[in-house]
Amino acid sequence: MQRPALLASFGLLAALAFAPMASASCPGDLNGDGSVDGADLAVIFGNFGIPGAPGDLNGDGILDGSDIGLFLSLWGPCAPSCTSYQSLNYVGAAVGGPGAYLPLTVLSGNVNVLPSGEPQGLVLAATFDGSVSIIQFALSSVSVFVDTSFVLFPAGGTPELAFIDGFPTTIAEMLTAFQTDLQIGLGPGDWSVAGRAILAMAALAETEPFACNLTVSLEDASPAAVAFWCKAGLASLGGGIVARAIIECPAVGTLCPEGGVASIGEFAMPCWSLSSVCVGDQFVGGQAAFDSVYSLWAGE
Q1: What confidence tens digit (pLDDT) does each residue in 15-37 have?
Q2: H or E stretch at 78
Q3: For 136-191, what is the HEC assignment?
Q4: Contacts of 241 by beta carbon, 8 Å cutoff, 6+ apart
Q5: For the chain, how long is the longest CA-to-CA vector?
Q6: Residue pLDDT, tens place only, 238-253
Q7: Is 297 helix (H, G, I), strand (E, B) or coil?
C-alpha cells in the first residue's frame, strides 16, 4: 500500500509512527504483536522485581508474582482492535475528564469515518457546571464551538496552527492557556476559549474509539485524513498530558520507565516521547506537551 505523501512532508516514517507497545485493550501484550504469549513472558521474567517496569499489570509499582498470575490469565490472542475504519460512537460514553483529573466530561454523538479515513459528525462535550462545547468533524478539519466562539483546526498548513475566531494561534499556546485555566481553579464555564476547546478535545483522548482511529489513520489513511488526525491528536493528547502532568508530573516523565509507556486516557505514549515534559517533578508547560506528541509523528 502506498503511504500518504503527507507523512513524508512531515518527515515521518509511517511504520515508526506508532511502535508496538502494550495497549489498554490488551495489557498483557507487552511487545505489541497482537498476542499474549511466550515473547511477552520473556519480558515479564526480564523485568521481574523491577519497580515500574513494563509488565506491572496490577499497577502496584513492582513486577512480582501477582503480575505473573494476572498475565497468565490473559494468555492468547488479543481481541480484535483497530483493524478497520469504523464509526466512532460516543453515545452514552462518560469519562472522568483528561487524565481523570478534571470534572466529569460526558461525550455524546456519532462520527462516521469514511474509507479514506476522513471523519464526519458531531460530538457534544459537557462538564458538571453546564459548560458545553461542540466538536464538528468535517472532511479533514475539526472545529470546536465554545459558546459564541469558534476554534478551527484546518487540514492544510503547518500542523501546529489553529484559528480562534479567525485569528491564528498555535496549539502549544492553546495548551498553555488550558494549563493556566486548570491551575486557576475556576469552573470550565469561566475558562478561556482556548482552554475550553482543549478541554473538549482532550476528552477524546480518554476514549478508545478515538485512540484506535488515530493509530490506524496515521498508518494508511489518505493524506488529507492524516493531516486531520495529526492536528486532532496534537490537541487531544496534548491536553491529556497537561492535565495529568500538572497533578502527577513524575509519573508522566521522570518515573516513566525507559522503553516503557505511559497511559494518557486510552492512548499509550512511549516514555521517550515524554522526556521533555517534566523537569524534576515540575511540569514545564504547554510547549513541552505539544512537542511530546509531535515527536511521535516526527520520529525524533
Answers
A1: 223 333 445 557 788 877 777 88
A2: none
A3: EEECCEEEEEECCEEEEECCCCCCCEEEECCEEEEHHHHHHHHHHHHHHCCCHHHC
A4: 99, 252, 264, 269, 274, 277, 289, 292, 293
A5: 57
A6: 998 898 888 777 666 6
A7: helix
